[in-house]
Amino acid sequence: MELELRFFNVDPSQILGIAKGLRYLHDHQPPVYHGDVKGFNVLISDEGQPLLTGFSLSFLVNSAFDLPVEVPSGGTLPWMAPERFGIDSDASGVTPEADVWAFGMTALELFTRRTPFHGLNHVRVISRIMKGLLPDLPEAESTYSRLTEKWWQICSLCWKYDPSQRPTMLQIVEMIVDAESHTKGDTESRMEESLTENRATLPSHSRSSLSIRSLFRRK
């Protein structure tokens, strides 16, 4: 059953909060790996802070293949890293690198409000992942232009087929902070340009007494 998420106004700072939560778990001694990172395993507190839940611990055998494939029962296929299928490597369990892959899928999920590989059944999802075929870049309209180029680069780094090539959660947090600082700067620059253009259209005798708030109230 295909589920469509209804996060109509995703705040990128909440995705940063998820990344910080995973970084804390991975840096904990002993380390803790989540194993089933996805939107439905993120709760939002009354203060607007994301809280991780739904940790994966057990395993099962998927009988849908000609050969048995060991996958974590708590994991969810569209978010799972290729090595978790137990085909190419010994790293079929829960690892920090697998959490990183799932985080990238979760970020995409929250931006698009759809599950990764939306519209594909599990067999096709596994086939795409094992062939190294990643999700397509969504149209800007589908993410309300919030999935910027920098955010897409972060997601793409999370989906490196070789687990050793993926960034750590600490590096991801740093990249998100950098991406959001650029986004904030670009937004403030566009607002300033808009205000400057509005001032240029006003009669000269009224410019000195016009407040920023009144600009937004003009009809």
From TrEMBL:
It comes from Pisolithus tinctorius Marx 270. The lineage of its organism: Eukaryota, Fungi, Dikarya, Basidiomycota, Agaricomycotina. GO terms for molecular function: ATP binding; protein serine/threonine kinase activity. Coiled coil: none annotated. Gene3D superfamilies: Transferase(Phosphotransferase) domain 1. Residues 202-219 have a biased composition (Low complexity). It comes from the Eukaryota. Pfam families: Pkinase. Residues 181-193 have a biased composition (Basic and acidic residues). PROSITE patterns: PROTEIN_KINASE_DOM (PS50011), PROTEIN_KINASE_ST (PS00108). This is Protein kinase domain-containing protein. Residues 1-185 form the Protein kinase domain. InterPro entries: Kinase-like_dom_sf, Prot_kinase_dom, Ser/Thr_kinase_AS, Ser/Thr_Kinases-Pseudokinases.
